[in-house]
């Protein structure tokens, strides 16, 4: 028998029945699409802690068990056995590519890595000290002014080309934001390099001498990109979907996602973790900061700890911690005071009653900042890197939404607690 849930309005004694929908795994959902029409009431869920906003086949998270699957494949298997291009293909198409499909996909992406030459003018319009995320929001939004031939969202071929353009150009856009801040010439991408390798090349090469990308660092960067590729209906992905639900073009939607990612409660956390570790400065001071994080009178939180969905160890954080050790070893960094502080902080927090009770574990951002810093990437670029990795997830989710026949413009309602209708007061009579 189909499962239903009955809602009883105690004030009138009326009952209403709602169907329960089951996914392939995860909690069932109550289908309340007719709730307002039938009850004359809205549901109330600020922060959407209990609300499923869409149907999706892309990513599944079991936050209690610490499980993350992309199209059914555990993140650990993908990070261990695939390169980022394979994961991109998987997210976009639902299946891993075979050898031929992989070569073609990588080649197709490579052909779009250059930016229109006029973008030089966009960059020079920014102050030198502009945050890379400010530049990313602006430049990605501006892509829609250049690539008119891929803006028809009802045309599958336009959707494919704009997706490829976004994925391919994002590393160039991010690297050029960095180059601009240094006052160095922009470096053009090289089509013989892989995705992560190309990004490191455009970040660190100069026209003055040959630059060889360290293959171990390129591999580590590739894995970091995999770990950030998609994460179900988080704030920035929901922003992309909401922006796209009105029919806005994909470049504009991804610019909206970048803006949402920027916040310290989301993608900005990796930068905030590094700043926090620097502020702690010494393992001896950890108890003082842990105490502050627990205090109700202090707004300080342990950055890189806690997650809306994971109430267990974030599986990405484990892989990130391992990658961190590999990178430090490759770079022959024997002593990393920041890593020492991070590891001790993690140990202390995981034994602390407050963090145990609230199920606060390290998240993906906890170790990524230390890796980036070791690679020579400045803290201001951390969130930009996250944005370039997440672009594939955003696009896969955007495309899934556009291709969903049930898709409607997103339009939440509210609990209004403002003034009710009142008499207008002319200016001369206002006190
Ligand atoms: N340090 C100290 N206390 C914390 C922390 C933390 N990092 N995170 C949550 N708490 C406490 C809250 O104070 C709250 O306590 P209370 O119940 O006594 O009021 C309780 O744990 C629940 O926290 P909420 O903020 O309600 O949880 P929510 O799901 O809304 O927030 C969030 C999740 C934003 C990630 C939060 O844990 C946080 O701010 N963490 C630090 C920032 C961070 O690392 N963000 C990256 C997230 S991962 C990503 O976006 C890639």
Q: Which labels suit this protein?
A:
single chain; 431 residues; mainly alpha; 3-stranded antiparallel beta sheet; 18 helices; 6 strands; 6% strand; binds acetyl coenzyme *A
Note down, in words, how this protein is organized.
A hairpin with a 7-residue loop joins β2 and β3 (29-30). This protein has helices at 35-39, 75-81, 84-93, 99-110, 119-124, 132-142, 156-182, 195-204, 215-227, 235-245, 250-261, 269-280, 286-294, 315-330, 337-351, 353-357, 365-374, 382-402; strands at 4-8, 15-21, 29-30, 59-62, 67-70, 73-74. α14 packs parallel to α17 (365-374). By secondary structure, it is mainly alpha-helical. It is globular. The chain has a 3-stranded antiparallel beta sheet with strand order 1-2-3. Strands 4-5-6 form a 3-stranded antiparallel beta sheet. The structure holds acetyl coenzyme *A (ACO).
Q: What is the strand tally?
A: 6
Question: Could you tell me which ligands this complex binds, including any ions or cofactors?
Answer: acetyl coenzyme *A
Please compute the radius of gyration using only Cα atoms.
24 Å
Strand order of the largest sheet: 1-2-3
Secondary-structure element sequence? EEEHEEEHHHHHHHHHHHHHHHHH
Q: In oligomeric terms, what are we looking at? A: single chain
How much of the sequence lies in strands comes to 5-15%
Question: Any idea what the shape is?
Answer: globular
Q: Major beta sheet, specifics?
A: 3 strands, antiparallel
Give helix % range.
40-55%
What structural class do the secondary elements suggest?
Answer: mainly alpha
Mean pLDDT: 94
Q: Please work out how many helical segments DSSP would assign.
A: 18
Could you give the distance between the termini?
65 Å
Model regions low in confidence, pLDDT < 50 over at least 5 residues:
none
């Amino acid at each position: 028998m189909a499962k239903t849930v009955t809602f009883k309005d105690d004030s009138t004694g009326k009952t209403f029945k709602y169907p329960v929908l089951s996914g392939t795994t995860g909690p069932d959902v109550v289908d309340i699409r007719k709730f307002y029409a039938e009850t004359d009431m809205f549901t109330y869920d600020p922060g959407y802690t209990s609300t499923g906003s869409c149907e999706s086949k892309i990513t599944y998270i079991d936050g209690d068990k610490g499980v993350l699957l992309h199209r059914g494949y555990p993140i650990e298997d993908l990070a261990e056995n695939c390169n980022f291009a394979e994961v991109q293909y998987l997210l976009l198409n639902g299946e891993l590519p075979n050898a031929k499909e992989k070569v073609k996909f990588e080649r197709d992406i490579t052909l779009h890595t250059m930016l229109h030459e006029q973008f030089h003018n966009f960059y020079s319009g920014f102050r030198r000290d502009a945050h890379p995320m400010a530049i990313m929001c602006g430049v990605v939004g501006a892509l829609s002014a250049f690539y008119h031939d891929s803006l028809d969202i009802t045309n599958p071929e336009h959707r494919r080309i704009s997706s490829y353009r976004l994925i391919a150009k994002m590393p160039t856009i991010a690297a050029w934001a960095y180059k601009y801040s240094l006052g160095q010439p922009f470096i053009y991408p090289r089509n013989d390099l892989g995705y992560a390798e190309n990004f490191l090349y455009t970040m660190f090469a100069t026209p003055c001498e040959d630059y060889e990308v360290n293959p171990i660092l390129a591999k580590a960067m590739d894995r970091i990109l995999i770990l950030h590729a998609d994460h179900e209906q988080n704030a920035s992905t929901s922003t992309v979907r909401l922006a796209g639900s009105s029919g806005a073009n994909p470049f504009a939607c991804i610019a909206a996602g970048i803006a949402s990612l920027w916040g310290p409660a989301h993608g900005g956390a990796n930068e905030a973790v590094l700043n926090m570790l620097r502020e702690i400065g010494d393992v001896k001071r950890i108890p003082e900061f842990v105490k502050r994080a627990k205090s109700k009178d202090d707004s300080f939180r342990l950055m890189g700890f806690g997650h809306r969905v994971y109430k267990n160890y974030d599986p990405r954080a484990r892989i990130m911690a391992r990658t961190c050790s590999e990178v430090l070893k490759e770079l022959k960094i024997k002593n990393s005071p920041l890593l020492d502080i991070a590891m001790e902080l993690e140990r202390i927090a995981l034994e602390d009653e407050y963090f145990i009770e609230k199920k606060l574990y390290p998240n993906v951002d906890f170790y990524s900042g230390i890796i980036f810093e070791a690679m020579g990437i400045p803290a201001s670029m951390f969130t930009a890197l996250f944005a370039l990795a997440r672009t594939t997830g955003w696009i896969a989710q955007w495309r899934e939404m556009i291709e969903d026949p049930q898709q409607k413009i997103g339009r939440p309602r509210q609990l209004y607690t403002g003034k009710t209708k009142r008499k207008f007061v002319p200016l001369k009579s206002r006190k």
